[in-house]
Design goal:
There is one protein chain. With 99 residues, this protein is an all-alpha fold. Helix 2 runs parallel beside helix 5, helix 3 crosses helix 4 and helix 3 packs across helix 5. The protein has one domain. Helices cover 56% and strands 0% of the residues.
Length: 99
């Protein structure tokens, strides 16, 4: 029987443009799951370089790893710092049209 090798999927490998990053984060935001959003931000940070993102956000590298680890509940202030460091702007839009 032929052995099949499967590589582990890493979203960070595909986040190679501003458009891809924005679409990825928007998809995570649309799900409404804070843990999924933190995981998506972690993928983007990995794609951009954890050390650089940590420095740009004013955080230590180890602190950033802890902040973005599964199950963490980062403060909104920290999320804003990370989004700024990543060059991403959060924008609000109406969920539905009101009558």
């Amino acid at each position: 029987m032929k052995e099949v090798k499967i590589a582990r999927f890493d979203a960070a490998d595909y986040l190679d443009s501003e458009e891809a990053i924005a679409a990825y984060l928007n998809a995570a935001l649309e799900e409404g799951d804070p843990d999924l959003l933190v995981a998506a931000i972690a993928d983007v940070a990995k794609a951009r370089g954890i050390a650089k993102v940590a420095a740009d956000a004013g955080l230590g590298r180890e602190s950033l790893y802890k902040t973005l680890s599964p199950g963490s509940k980062p403060k909104l202030e920290t999320i804003f710092k990370l989004m700024h460091a990543l060059g991403i702007k959060l924008v609000a839009s109406p969920e539905t049209q009101r009558a």
